[in-house]
């Protein structure tokens, strides 16, 4: 006979099993299954190990990478650091957007913790004293960009897809993308390059640069082809040199070229609030240090978590996939200067501290 007591015991057992599964996942995660570390010779090698998720970055991974970098920085037997992604599709496809979305809706502290600790990690990479080499073979977006461009050396391949698509999901476009160059290496040479890097003995930055340059000289794929935007460079400079997003849109409409019309169509799909935030970020960020930019970025990340457009963008693009977000406000004119100013305001004690 099934009694209330048996039902209760069955429920408790099922709950216990679920808890064990969750704990097992957490324990395996804490053991570093999502990010791997190894010493190869005198090189510390980091492998982002979520290939099915295109190595998307989450808080657990950040909390493993940060202390390991600190440890290697102080270790006299570690001469350089290499970071790469598992699998053959991507280096890192950005942050775990779904987890951030769920946390934001629930008021969970993940929305503060993840961005704060990610930006602290970015700053650590940007100020790292030893050579830091990012092998960005494949898709590299959002958080993956932060893990790579701040390091001294960035190695791209013919498979690298480099993107920051934030405004399409109602999030501001990060502007810590200081002008940076990439060493080009063919995918088939990556394994050989990594071996040569770890074989270097007490390398200086110039030693690493010399090795990377030697690989770039071998990578002549499409070298005879012009820059893909070469024909549009003059138009980009002319049309996007404006004092506001509204002026840019007006320039594009007046120009009337196929290129301008395509940009108008693309920008019209984006969150008006995100466009205005990004425009101001780019203007202010150009005059800031990395540390000041990261403080600004953190303030804006929290503003996006408080607003509507991030959640609506994720719904439209990643969840329902109807590609029809309902932005609030829905027009550039509806986004007040006061609203933008508030997003840049200090968070007081909750500001990012580096």
Distance between the termini: 63 Å
> What's the count of strands?
9
Q: How many separate helices?
A: 14
How much is the radius of gyration in Å?
23 Å
Q: What class do helices, strands and sheet pairing give?
A: alpha/beta
Q: What's the oligomerization state?
A: single chain
| Residue-averaged pLDDT | 87
Question: In which range does the helix fraction lie?
Answer: 40-55%
What letter string, H or E per element, gives the SSE order?
HEEHEEHHEEHEEEHHHHHHHHH
Which residues form runs of ≥5 with pLDDT under 50? Answer: 1-31, 175-179
Sheet having the most strands:
6 strands, mixed
Which range does the strand content fall in?
Answer: 5-15%
Strand order of the largest sheet: 1-2-3-5-7-9
Overall 3D form: globular
Summarize this entry quickly.
The protein is α/β, with parallel strands linked by helices and 354 residues long. It is built from 14 helices and nine strands. Strand 1 and strand 2 form a beta hairpin.
Structural description of this entry:
51% of the residues lie in helices and 11% in strands. The protein is built from 14 helices and nine strands. The chain has helices at residues 4-30, 59-74, 97-106, 110-126, 143-149, 190-198, 205-218, 233-239, 245-255, 258-268, 272-285, 290-306, 309-319, 337-344; strands spanning 35-40, 43-48, 80-85, 90-92, 132-136, 139-141, 153-156, 161-163, 183-184. A six-stranded mixed sheet has the order 1-2-3-5-7-9, sandwiched between helices. A three-stranded parallel sheet has the order 4-6-8. Helix 2 (59-74) packs parallel to helix 4 (110-126), helix 3 packs across helix 13 (309-319) and helix 4 (110-126) packs antiparallel against helix 12 (290-306). It is globular, with a radius of gyration of 23 Å. The model is unreliable at 1-31 and 175-179 (pLDDT under 50).
